[in-house]
Amino acid sequence: MVRVGIVALQGGVSEHYYMVRRAGERIGLGVEPVLLKKPGDLRDIDAVIIPGGESTTIGIVAKRTGLLDELREAILGGLPVLSTCAGAIIMAKKLAGTRGAQPILGVMDVEVHRNYFGRQRESFEVDLNIDFLSGPPFRGVFIRAPAFTDFWGDARPAAAIEYNGRRVYVAAVERAMIATSFHPELTGDTRIHEYLLSLAKK
C-alpha cells in the first residue's frame, strides 16, 4: 500500500484525491490518499501532492500550522512530490512576476513566473510532449498558469509550448520532484499521477 499525502489547505484537493486513486487502480497498486493539514499528517507518507489554487494562501496557512517546514524537510530528504500550478510556485527557489514575499518551500532549482499566461479568461488547453511519459501527447489544462523561466543545478525542463512566438517551459523535474504549470488532475489522463506512484514505490 502506497500512502499519498495531498496538501489539503486550499485548491484542487478532491480532484487529485480522485486521480491518485484512479492511477493506482490502472497500474494495480494499492493507494491510500491522505489529506495533509498539519505536520503530524506527514507520518508514513510515501509521496505528496501540492495542488493548484492560490499559492499565497496555501503558503501562509502551511507556515502558520507548521506544515511548511516539515514538508520542506521531507522533500529535501527525498520524498517524491508532484506540484501543480500554484504548487509549482511554492516549490520554486526563485519567483518572478510577483510583488512582495510569500511563504514558499524553496526546494526546487527553478525560477517560476506566476500568472505568466495572463488571467483566468486567458485559460487554454494544448497537447504536450512530456519527456518522462510514454504514449500520446498529454492534454495540458492551463488556468492562470505560471511558467518556468530558469533552471540550474539538477533541475531540467520536461515540457514546453510555443507561446507568442517563444518557447515557454511548462514542466520541470529534479530528482523525485515534479512540477507542472498545468492541471493534470483536470483531465482523464492518469499518467503523471502514475509516474508519481512509480517514484513512491522506489
Task: Give a structural overview.
The structure is a single chain. This protein has 202 residues and is an alpha/beta fold. The chain has a single domain, classed as Class I glutamine amidotransferase (GATase) domain (Rossmann fold). The chain is 26% helix and 33% strand. It has 5 helices and 12 strands. It has helices spanning 13-27, 55-65, 67-76, 86-91, 191-201, and strands spanning 2-7, 31-36, 47-50, 81-84, 92-96, 108-113, 124-128, 138-142, 147-151, 156-163, 166-174, 177-180. The strands form 3 sheets. The chain has a 7-stranded mixed β-sheet with strand order 2-1-3-4-12-11-10. A 3-stranded mixed β-sheet has the order 5-6-9. A two-stranded antiparallel ribbon has the order 7-8. Strand 11 and strand 12 (177-180) form a beta hairpin. Helix 1 packs across helix 5 (191-201). The protein is globular, with a radius of gyration of 15 Å. The mean pLDDT is 93.
